[in-house]
């Protein structure tokens, strides 16, 4: 059966009379021309006139067909297999799709949806009724054919979840059920029509299927919600809490905001302009008992029509520290203790809100036994030459996956550089030690303005950052693939960097012991190491912020945390959870807080519209679904239109050339 | 049509170096550029003749007398001015303007006449203009003073093109104006004179007058470029014919070519210059080429 998405456009076929009339009117009316003398002209009533008329007719036919094809393309025809005649025992089917997303918690939408669903069931007596409750997927379902009592029980049990809505899967399931039968079908969608859920529903309904949309929401509902909360420790042991509150309604709102963490509590009244968000900073005093409930914060607003976004769970406790690994040549080498001491002290210190590192020290022979996935930075303190080739390979994989490695020259720097070059980690040649005979003050002479350290060394007047004694250093000759970040006053490379994969490899041309330089004692040592280590530690390290239903495995980097204990489909309820050593903040999606709604009629039309692309995309998932019997013809018409247009142009050109 | 429209500076600049010279000896009263019928003591040597008493002794060739012992007198061609009649057809067929032409045939002819009048006037000749259709529309009568150029152009501007052409009546007036010797320039498309042009030219030439025939045609008349079917209406007779130009074009062009060739032959046979002026051709180029050729033939 041929159906049209826009059948009223077929009236345009009447316009075909236009070219026909023009053809008839213009056919025999030669243009008059006053000519100086016609005595040399003869009449030309030749047999070719007949052929010309034929050519004109061909042109007319082509033009009319082109016009008709254009109208057909716009009317969007499609072929639907005619359903077989209903058997006497098959009953009409209806499926109720109940929106169970988080937004249904607001403004009595759930209760209203329940009432509407029951009313539909009453109206559909004599039908096989099925029920599907959807949130981010199909939450529960009852296939058509069940008893009326079972249907009513399912509707009575209906309760929205805290997940963000995605009705696509539920719609596909409903259409699969409806299309499994040749009998009359009816799809009823009951929802609050919140725009976040229905912004782009796939059009999958077949022609002939009745679609109804029931509105369970409330027009012009007001809502204020908490968008995000961040807690930052203060030096006095207290916390600074930044709360972002958003007004989703078109009128000003005033709400009381309460932030609670254990026995600490702060309140503030917030006045919000229409459709605006506001940042509120609250200070929580020092907790008497750190850890425990004091670490679990909750920001709450006065309850409004939609209560799910009035609470926000956040973590106020200590964050897990990033891990650094110090690799030394061997336990028997007391000279390597001194650099390890300086580096460890520099890394464990907390610096401006950035937590200190957890530092683990090992010898090179134990490198294989370390779990590098949980490590962010590795310091090879003169230990590169002690690593086995397999260790170097593992080191390269570590850097490629985003880690940061620092290396300093050891007992055999050329051998170490050769191994690094073979592994593709660092390309440079050692040209012997310099400055070993006398105590020469060299210091830093140049810092690459584009590197992360440029901010640190930005002010050349701060001489304590630049000037220190260098008694010994390795003269490096770096290749173009390696970037020199810092040079000495003599212009020798002091620190060089190579980017490998997503990580970095840094090589200092001096050891961090006082026999080589005073660098570890200067004020530039700590910030230099910390700044470079933070490349491997992204913002938000140590805590995860998810929305209900977010699968933890796909929600970003977890830095080696064990996800086996986390639910595979995410946490369904808001709250604070823990994965490994990391706290996880789970809250309701902000998308569900929006008060914008789609129009019920628009949604019905959108669901009813035959969209070939989407329909076909949906069909493989649904056995015997709508895609199998629905053939879009407008594409064929479009091709015909293009072909006819080309033919008409060719014919016109040909006839013009023939005169 | 104003003075400036008739005499384009570009055209005048193009023909500034040429003169409109008569190919026959003309009668005139003033000295000019043209050979006079009177032999005498002008600038150009013609022949010797035997000395007769009364001849001016200063024209006797004494060197020849010393060699042969017989006196001869040198005879010179006198140079004089001439009368020039410009005869322009203003019949309905001259009103045609094709798609490729810059102006109508009549206007092209008028500009041509104006340029020739200017040339003749500049070299001291007397110019008369005769415009006609089925009657003489404007002209200078025998015995009248030749009009000044602005007056002539003003008369030309008043002319309304239309009706059929009666060439003979205008020719009589022109012949009367130039007298027995002089130059008559005929400007027309000669559509209805396929047979009669030879007789007309012969009549003009009979009186030892110089004559020049210019056939003014539109490019459309030569190649019939129309694509679609047309209903052609004869501009003078009003007859109609509906035809497909593409189908008759070849035959038309052949007949048209034969027509112009015959006109040319008729003129040349009577020692008359013939020039085909197609209205999409640059007027300056046309005139310059013709005048150059004419001077070269003298």
Give a description of the structure.
The complex is a heterodimer of chains A (659) and B (298). Chain A is of the alpha/beta class. Chain A has 14 helices and 31 strands. Chain B is α/β, with parallel strands linked by helices. Chain B folds into two domains: 3-20 and 81-297, 3-Layer(aba) Sandwich (Rossmann fold), CATH 3.40.50.410; 39-77, no CATH class. Chain B has helices spanning 3-6, 9-15, 62-68, 105-122, 149-157, 167-178, 197-206, 219-223, 245-269, 283-297; strands at residues 34-40, 44-50, 72-80, 83-89, 126-132, 136-138, 183-188, 210-217, 230-234, 240-243, 273-278. Chain B has a six-stranded mixed beta sheet with strand order 6-5-4-7-8-11, with helices on both faces. In chain B, strands 1-3-2 form a three-stranded antiparallel beta sheet. The longest helix of chain B has 25 residues, at 245-269. The model of chain B has no long low-confidence stretch (mean pLDDT 83). Chain A binds chain B through residues 30-44, 46, 48-49, 656, 659, and chain B through 93-94, 96, 105, 189, 191-192, 217-218, 220-221, 224, 226-236, 239-248, 251-252, 255-256, 259. Strand 2 (31-35) of chain A pairs parallel with strand 9 of chain B, so a sheet runs across the interface.
